[in-house]
Amino acid sequence: MESDNPFGVCLFMNGLHLNADAQDSLVNIANLLYRNNANAIIVRKGGVPDGIITAKDIIRGLISIRKSPHTITAEEVMSTPLITIPHDASMSDARERMLQSGVRMLPVENDSEILGLLVASDILKDLSWHQR
Where are the beta strands (DSSP E) in 39-130? Predict the structure, then answer.
């Protein structure tokens, strides 16, 4: 991995992240995101990170799944597989992973434990860091 920043993705990630169970309802997920002013939530299946839900996923689920939002589960709308980045990766690695995968958020992990979220806007912070 290229070392373009001595701190890598951990310096720029948001260490606060939310978790939900795969069987939680879409209404509960939306409320959790709203109450915490968050952009995404990690979905766990059997306690293991399995997917991610963003506001876009919620809207897509509401439109495409013809059921009450109270009966739609996180598992039905989550994006999977969960595309992550190792905690010791460089920001260049993260940019490349986002571009290749077409995602704007990457959970940062260490030994299968999610440490935080890196979002596309964090890449701009990194670019600013380089211009100092």
Answer: 40-45, 48-54, 85-86, 105-110, 113-119
pTM as predicted: 0.84
According to DSSP, the residues that pair with 48 across neighbouring strands are: 45
Q: Is the pLDDT of residue 7 over 80?
A: no
Cα dihedral 21, 22, 28, 32 sign:
positive
Rounded-to-integer distance, Cα 23 and Cα 11, Å: 33
Task: Report, in angstroms and rounded to the nearest whole number, the Rg of the chain calculated over CA atoms.
Answer: 15
Residue 66 identity (one-letter amino acid): R
Distance between CA atoms of residues 131 and 124, nearest Å? 11
Percent with pLDDT over 90 in the chain: 67
10 Å CB burial of residue 22 (0-12, 13-18, 19+) is middle
CB atoms within 10 A of CB 79: 17
Domain topology for 9-130: CBS-domain (3.10.580)
Domain definitions of the chain by residue range? 9-130
Pick from 98, 102, 79: nearest CA to 89: 98
